[in-house]
Amino acid sequence: MHLSLLGMPGSGKTTLGRALAQHFNRPFLDLDAEVAARAGQSIPAVFAQHGEAYFRQLEAEALRAVVARPGPLVLATGGGTPCFHDNIKVLNNSSFTLWLDVPVAVLAHRLGKGGAAKRPLLAATGPGLAASLAETLAARRQFYAQARLRFAETRLPLEALLPALARAGFPASALV
């Protein structure tokens, strides 16, 4: 069974995903990197040249291809991945889904260090970053809430997450 991490930009999906992959001795895959590789250009370039709708279609296709791969992996999804093209259903049918629920103030602090400029939907927010994140989270919460486990720790210690995964039913055989 795959382990798929969901959450807002800046929630730590990639950082924690790499640590979980190492802990469970599984491959790690960042869905945004997979989309960029398939598109042959960066995510900002895809957005700039083709728009969000095109990006979301590429993302949905990449997601379906990734979760169909044999063998378990740890997947860091894009922040909006679960919200389009029934992707949350695809994720829940193929993965143990984990929502990293990080407060907006923490997200804004993390992304305010230059991280927002690299993300097409946040690049133009400037001083309105926290308000934009709050608005985006409000729209996405209904999708994130469908994850099998919500983890609301801001520091994301692996030691705290592993017992929570086990209590939530993540396969014990994966807890190596």
TrEMBL record:
One of its GO terms (molecular function) is shikimate kinase activity. Substrate binds at residues 32, 56, 79, 140. Pathway: Metabolic intermediate biosynthesis; chorismate biosynthesis; chorismate from D-erythrose 4-phosphate and phosphoenolpyruvate: step 5/7. CDD domains: SK. SUPFAM superfamilies: P-loop containing nucleoside triphosphate hydrolases (SSF52540). Mg(2+) binds at residue 14. It catalyses: shikimate + ATP = 3-phosphoshikimate + ADP + H(+). Its cofactor is Mg(2+). It is an enzyme of class 2 (transferase). It comes from the Bacteria. Binds 1 Mg(2+) ion per subunit. It holds the Pfam family SKI. It is found in: Cytoplasm. Catalyzes the specific phosphorylation of the 3-hydroxyl group of shikimic acid using ATP as a cosubstrate. Belongs to the shikimate kinase family. Monomer. This is Shikimate kinase. It comes from Hymenobacter caeli. The lineage of its organism: Bacteria, Pseudomonadati, Bacteroidota, Cytophagia, Cytophagales. The gene is aroK.
